[in-house]
Amino acid sequence: MNILIVDDHPLFRHALIQAVRYSLPQAQIQETADVDEFYRRLEQGAEPDLVLLDLNLPGASGFSALVYVRAQYPAMPIIVVSAHEEASIIQRSIAHGAMGYIPKSSHPSHIGEAIKHVLEGEIWLPPSLPRHAGFDPRAADETALAERLQSLTPQQFRVLMMVAEGLLNKQIAYELEVSEATIKAHVTAIFRKLGVQNRTQAVLAISALNIEDKKM
Prior knowledge:
The chain is an alpha/beta fold and 216 residues long. The chain is built from 10 helices and 5 strands, in the order E-H-E-H-E-H-E-H-E-H-H-H-H-H-H.
């Protein structure tokens, strides 16, 4: 059993590792705090049996990492682990392909319970989620955008995230160690696939996946 934990908070990452080891003592646990390293591990290594993914990662925009990974690795189980406890965010996470959602305030026993359910192919939701929580319409509205994002190549997705951060083509080329012409070609392809005309529209499109909430 190979489990990958993706969270940028060292203290919580350590606590999560301990909780996983308590429930699955034989599991091989890997960890990363960086979204780009997360993508590289998936591209270069064996696909993990389970990913525990924080939503608030530097270099990601809201649900973007979840949407991207679900598109590239459709069979890989993902459990979102987040400080957000709102029913709407839980719903949107499941709509974007998460098989479980663990609030960071959860009791350690819930972590083990969630992992076992998801590994058995079931959806796990926190017991604190109201049974009659209203459906968030954004979960459906974001589906079309998620489908367009799924058409991007890994490199195009990285470029889009850098565009969303406000980097210029020249800066992106430097960061990715490619020519500026290559970045321009990627940006043109991104615009076409997202159905937008310029950088502003592209940033507005990806911002639809943001978590609109004050709680971090």
